[in-house]
Amino acid sequence: MLVVMQQDATEAQIRAVIDRLVDLGFTVHRSTGVLHTVLGGVGPVDDIDIAVFEAMAGVKECHRIVSPYKLASRFFRPQGTIVKVGNVEIGGPKLVVMAGPCSVESEEQIEEAARIVAEGGAQILRGGAFKPRTSPYSFQGMGEEGLKIMRAAADRHGLLMISEVMDASQLPLLLKYSDILQIGARNMQNFNLLREAGKVSKPVMIKRGIAATVEELLLAAEYVMSEGNYNVMLCERGIRTFETATRNTMDVSAIPVVKKLSHLPMIGDPSHGTGRRDMVLPMARAAVAAGADGLIVEVHPDPDRALSDGAQTLNPGQFAEMMAQVRAVAAAIGRAA
Amino acid sequence: MLVVMQQDATEAQIRAVIDRLVDLGFTVHRSTGVLHTVLGGVGPVDDIDIAVFEAMAGVKECHRIVSPYKLASRFFRPQGTIVKVGNVEIGGPKLVVMAGPCSVESEEQIEEAARIVAEGGAQILRGGAFKPRTSPYSFQGMGEEGLKIMRAAADRHGLLMISEVMDASQLPLLLKYSDILQIGARNMQNFNLLREAGKVSKPVMIKRGIAATVEELLLAAEYVMSEGNYNVMLCERGIRTFETATRNTMDVSAIPVVKKLSHLPMIGDPSHGTGRRDMVLPMARAAVAAGADGLIVEVHPDPDRALSDGAQTLNPGQFAEMMAQVRAVAAAIGRAA
Amino acid sequence: MLVVMQQDATEAQIRAVIDRLVDLGFTVHRSTGVLHTVLGGVGPVDDIDIAVFEAMAGVKECHRIVSPYKLASRFFRPQGTIVKVGNVEIGGPKLVVMAGPCSVESEEQIEEAARIVAEGGAQILRGGAFKPRTSPYSFQGMGEEGLKIMRAAADRHGLLMISEVMDASQLPLLLKYSDILQIGARNMQNFNLLREAGKVSKPVMIKRGIAATVEELLLAAEYVMSEGNYNVMLCERGIRTFETATRNTMDVSAIPVVKKLSHLPMIGDPSHGTGRRDMVLPMARAAVAAGADGLIVEVHPDPDRALSDGAQTLNPGQFAEMMAQVRAVAAAIGRAA
Amino acid sequence: MLVVMQQDATEAQIRAVIDRLVDLGFTVHRSTGVLHTVLGGVGPVDDIDIAVFEAMAGVKECHRIVSPYKLASRFFRPQGTIVKVGNVEIGGPKLVVMAGPCSVESEEQIEEAARIVAEGGAQILRGGAFKPRTSPYSFQGMGEEGLKIMRAAADRHGLLMISEVMDASQLPLLLKYSDILQIGARNMQNFNLLREAGKVSKPVMIKRGIAATVEELLLAAEYVMSEGNYNVMLCERGIRTFETATRNTMDVSAIPVVKKLSHLPMIGDPSHGTGRRDMVLPMARAAVAAGADGLIVEVHPDPDRALSDGAQTLNPGQFAEMMAQVRAVAAAIGRAA
Predict the structure, then answer these.
(1) How much is the ipTM here?
(2) Whole-angstrom Cα distance, residue B230 to residue B206?
(3) Which domains, and CATH codes, for chain D?
(4) How many CB pairs under 8 A join A and B?
(5) Taking the model in full, what pTM does it have?
(6) pLDDT score of B45
(7) Which of A104, C133, D46, D99 supports an S-S bond with C138, CB 3.0-4.6 Å?
């Protein structure tokens, strides 16, 4: 149930609608747009007679939402969401780039990486301190020490930082150091983690699971948003198909599909999307051309010595070249970069 | 690194090999078979000269294991694993059936379900108290109250019980009530949960993720086993493909493939595997014919009123028919049922 | 549009209905069952008022068929189709086995294969004389010479024969030698070939394409049937998924799904379905347990020297063992073998 | 086996190498580049001692090609292939656009479509006269009459034309009217058709099958090229995955992957790639940004009345907008449009 208030609706009128929704058993989410306030009512059933609300003072229109996600739906915020972190706006006119190594490995490595990232003109430093690894015997990340040195490196270079939280128990640690919380593809349906991430205020980036439909991705966002945290962005990072030429198949079309169905910013990850260093550049261009609000890519001072994901990681020269090219593509479709 | 001891190796000889492995940085897992003790050495590298061990007293042979999983490998326990729970043996000659509703909904429902399950000759009652649901607005399960009434119903009917743990924080509760812990498909790569499940002694059943390869499933088992819990069984419950006639595509071939690669018991789930009540019976027969050690199926006193998964749930008559037919197929391939 | 005639409908009444259907622009297909004659009317539109027909003398009931396939639908022949070839009935109570080498390679090889197949109790010799090969540089088959020596070998051992037709231009040759025409997975949507195969009277077995849905498979059958050839059987031989442990993923559930949606016989191919010799036996059992009317498997006197598909081909001992085991499973589910 | 001749190799030296290759049982394909002549030797085995050739006069270097395709390999023509049709060059610096309706339906429709296509600045008119349809009851195309009126419309507007050939028997007809022969996704492994298309001189565009790997696509090209027709281009038009938000999943990464592995031009088809009109524009931009040499898109004067594929067909305004945007993206990556 979505109630769109008139442009000149008073706070009292808005309150009255909220109260009515609550009386009927709905949880109410409020979104204040430039022109209209929109009230999202989430309830166990959606079969209320909407005429009841359309007749109320200050109400412009009322919609029954049949998609399984409501707060993540484009209807809830037709103007789109801009996630603000520090002085960076994700989902606005300017393309945002997050870059850095797969794993934080040492102070020298992350310092060097941060320098490359900042010089290339990216705004956000990425890097994992807790690593989800398919094998229990692979490098599992540096933990808090990794977060600490990453924070310091980001600060030295005027960058924001994003890092992955693998379990609800790690949330306090991540909140202490990181500006954006990443929920990885393997955890896209870790519903406990999603709920807990919905109770914090820092922005969350949810990566699409390798076998998740776009609808399931939006429902994952709904889990976070239904707990009150609307600072959500989504990320396409490749799905699993029969093709083996690339490690995953980057579903570039998911970018415009999500942008149409939802108001949330959409990030493209050509590093995981292809798993091949030589494919990152063309697929970064493709993601931007398809309408991505940002990119997240892996770059390492010396990719061939990276402890994880080296095969898909750019070297500094490749990263600089990518930044130049994606800026040109962004400009071509009327976007700042 | 696997060291197979001679049949008449003494405890002192075994200890000497263990000490040597530990000195070289290996974690040692010990498996005592009918004829041979096998020592599994898991280390950061696998490039030790195995001749060192082959020369030691009491050693029969020594293998460098190149598969990414070691403890889950068939080589570690060539004779196969039998998971013992109460008086039930899973992985032995007798086919084991786990059955019950998708969700525990009420005392009456679970009591009636337990009666049907026991009368049909199944040994283990299934039912979820914590439900992973794609939408945050769907029924999420009864929680501890559900576990409590399920335990009571199982006990009244002489059944064991299996129930899903969705997060490491729920482990103490599940351990209190349930005989077997189920780790669901969405959590197959929730590595934190897998590790924690490796620290308990109760048996764990891991369901294959809908986009997980057999190798990744075995690596999930490796996570649990590497922490010391060898009471692991695996479950095929359908993978995601392009076909829409069934909700998932049950990869029946994963059953003999896992049985060949690993010593762990393998369970077939034709309910989730197909998502269609009318396909459960033929696919239960197929799973048993392919060599499954057991089945897990959904049955409900009144499936059309089930709060979840009703479309794939058998009614009591269909369940009785299935039990009769899978017994006949099991007997045909030389298996008790 | 399906018109079911009454049990005692006269030929004149049946003719009257046919004439009426033809007047309305329908092409009429007639199926004579034990109790009822069913008339399938296929037209450009399906929005005729069915009351017109229900009022006619001798008509029992009338259905508008909304599935995209009509003649292949179970409704058209509720009793099921039995394809008769020589003294073999496919789709009846008895399990039928087709076996032989992937390719006809020499007179000695096919003679030896035919002997093994006949001794094992199978009824039909399989073997390709025209081979669809992914690479233009692979062995492409012996052509007519291969068909000739295969026919002779089949006759010597009292077997029927099935062989693949790759192109409409090869039809006359295949019709000259083979009892059953096989249309391969890559040609499942070669509509020209399907139509031409619909104009002959010999039985046709259509293999499911590796990315074809069950609905598309039934529509391929509809192409053949709409030209008048109702002697069609279908074959599940594995679909392409992300899993690499087997060459394809054998969709065993397609067997009961097709049996429910259609009246056509359904064959399982565990050789192509798995691509692994060691998986053919368990998956042959699974296919039979799931309700397959027959099996098609690759067997070769010396698989390691086969010119194609050796990795998935049984040796003579494995074939004999498979025959014994599938007979036991067939008996367990009430089927002769 | 690839033999690269020196820049100043004489014709006699080249002939000597060819003769030697032929003596050893190779079929020889010759490619004359700006600097070097390359000889591709295709034989039953590839284990000849290459030193034999390296020692011959005029030979620069010699490579054993281990990929299953040889003529389609980038090594065969490192400089890339430009397919010339009339005054259009496909694979050169300029982006080429093929556009038109799915099916030729009438003289008025194709005339109007041609006008729109030409005004938009595209060079090639697309349209099907023979339509592969999943159902035998769907519109199957106008046949020769369709080709005739399409040819006339193309000529009136100064356009080239491309149309699909579904079966080898249709080749003479297509050759009479069409400038480029399209081999559709369902026929990508119709090896008979591929071979016959290799015997003509007109350019062939092969569309990737919905479950075909990139390697299989290149092997399809190899079938055509091995018969002598090197005027081949390839087309990505979406693969079949679990995602249902789009009809297919357009594998944009296949574009740079093919460009790296092969010298053949690569075309993107965002119409079939997505199956949704509203996704054609962003995915056309993405394909160009990823490096496509051209696009093929469906446009119709009145898409909602199209006899086939209307849901994915642009209207004239959308087509004009797309042309403007892809030109901007092409320019941004240094390509003319």
Answers:
(1) 0.88
(2) 12
(3) 2-66 (3.30.70.1140), 83-332 (3.20.20.70)
(4) 75
(5) 0.86
(6) 60
(7) C133
